[in-house]
Amino acid sequence: MESRLSVPGDGWRSSLMKHSVLLLLTTVMLGCQPVAFGPGLQDFSAPLPHGYFIHRTSAHQIIVAPQQWSPDTPIIPTKVVELDHDDQFIIAKQQLLERRSPNNPNDTYEQPKPDAFQYWILDMQTPKVYGPFTEEEFDIERSGLAVPTELQLHDVYDYRP
Predict the structure, then answer these.
(1) Which InterPro entries does the protein's record reference (predicted)?
(2) Which one of 31, 64, 103, 118 is most buried, by most CB atoms within 10 A?
């Protein structure tokens, strides 16, 4: 008959081994999950009427354009910060960008220019783009084009899928 001696405190090895395996599995599982850091993870394209989209390709590169477009295609250039639309019109507020280091030719990064905005109207049925406008010019042009007053500018991220 074989007897097995149990040493007091021997259970800690078994417990340590179980916890080590659990920690390893948890680390591997978390390592396989996407993390919200790095380029591209917050980017999106959201559909609008008539084949137009909101394209966000980085924090300051947000445009309104078709999926594929040429230099002659009516678009609303970057950085679109607010918009609204119906089946005919897109209205948009654009924040202007400026070079972070204008005197450094090697630094071409553009950042938002504080309190510098322009406004745009895109007639998707024509298609034709009107702008850029100051806020006052925008209100006049909007009235002249009979853009419905129900269209009210709101945050572009409201359209994120």
Answers:
(1) DUF3997
(2) 64
The dihedrals phi and psi of 98, each to the nearest 5 degrees, come to -140, 155
The position carrying tokens 């089946």 is: 87
- CA-CA distance, 50 to 97, in Å (whole number)? 28
Per-residue pLDDT tens for 13-58?
566 566 555 555 555 555 554 444 444 678 999 999 999 999 999 9
Whole-number Cα distances in Å, 86 to 95, 125, 147:
22, 11, 9
3-state secondary structure of 12: helix
Give kind and range of the element (H or E) at residue 56. Answer: strand 52-58
Bridge partner list, 117 = 95
Model confidence over 73-105: pLDDT tens digits? 999 999 999 999 999 999 999 999 999 999 999
Distances (CA, A) of 85 to 34, 49, 50, 159: 33, 8, 11, 11
Look at residues 92, 89, 101 and name the one whose alpha carbon lies nearest to residue 148. Answer: 89
